Amino acid sequence: MSGSISLFPFWEYWWFYAGFTVFVGILLALDLGVFHRKAHTVSFREAATWSVVWVALALLFNFGFYRFMLSRFAQDQRLLAVPGFVPASAAWEAALQFLAGYVVEYSLSVDNIFVFVVVLNYFSIPTVYQHRVLFFGILGALIFRAIFIAVGAALLQYQWVLWFFGAFLVFTGVRMMFATEKGVEPEENALIRLFRRFVPVTPEMHAQKFFLRVSGKVHATPLFVALLFLEMTDIVFAVDSVPAIFALTREPLIVFTSNIFAILGLRNLYFMLRGAIDRFHMLKYGLGIVLVFVGMKMTVFQLPYFERLFHGHFPITWSLGIIVGVIALSVAASLIFPRAPGHEGEPPLPMPFGHEIVTHDMPDRKAGDKEKRR
Question: In whole angstroms, what is the distance from residue 299 CA to residue 230 CA?
């Protein structure tokens, strides 16, 4: 029932969006200004501890969100006037949608982590400054995700957009399972080269500074160039992840909060997996299947036949079980059947469709120049 009506119209819940944004801002301020005020190398133990903290915060928020909905829906005359609306059932379904969206976004973050590893290593970012780069990278990702979600919510009002996004997710999922990937090439990045034409870049690091003045002129440091690259790649990754969550719920508030919580835990996930990312080589098949599934949920499962079969919409409990089960099996298969020797350093899964725009060279780049520079 909740799928046919808007549970959280923006004009009624703008204060919730604002309050949640302030809450996230406080968390980030505490993270950078208190717990990570001094630059240091993040150990596996510290990253694991903070990963548990961020996951616990997401689950605690979801529980509080569920209790809030129970009370709110029972007093909302607009919703109570809808035939067949049951406040408790709607609140439970929305809480499961948040959890499913969180799991999908958190799982899709693994390909972001491979990019983090490549970029931070390429620009020789010392481990003591990597947290600072990732912090501001995550901050930028939050802003861009909010924009993507707002645009997606507006576009998904049109039926053809649903089919387009659904077909795109199916295509991306199949491509992820079977396509080969050459990896990310920061040195061939066209936009980075364009940036360097207008802003000079210092050849060496200057502690944790992004900019500094040299002979009266502002220069960027490699730290900022790495940050810029991470921001551009995250925009491409959002093209996959945002529609994937919209396939699980049409509520922008749930998409926004679940997406943000998943991104907040991304840095610590990186520090945990940076040395073992290539071990999860089977994950690409699991994520590919998940994307195909959510793409079909957005398209094929909306046809009248399936609506009659499922007595309405595809159950969110089934969706959550399928997503968690497929990802868990792919992770287990990666550990049980390790990658053959000689494949170390290869990406465990291909980059999203269209990543060449921000990770590869301009098409008119001359091969001779490339060889000369190498």
Answer: 32
CA 315 to chain centre: 24
Question: How far is residue 160's CA from residue 320's CA, in Å, rounded to a whole number?
Answer: 26
Residue 265 structure tokens: 């835990």
The letter for the amino acid at 212 is L
Give pairs for 17-26: CB < 8 Å, separation 24+: 17/253, 17/256, 20/256, 20/257, 20/260, 24/142, 24/260, 24/264
Q: Which amino acid is at 4?
A: S
d(CA 96, CA 332): 24
The single-letter code of the amino acid at 271 is F
Query: Pairing mode, if any, of strands 211-214 and 217-220?
Result: antiparallel
203 has a pLDDT exceeding 80: no
Residue 311 phi/psi, 5-degree rounding, is 55, 45
What pLDDT, in 10s, does the model give residues 173-185? Answer: 888 787 665 555 6
185: its two tokens: 């090439």
**The model scores a pTM over 0.70:** yes
Contact predicate 301/230, CB 8 Å = no
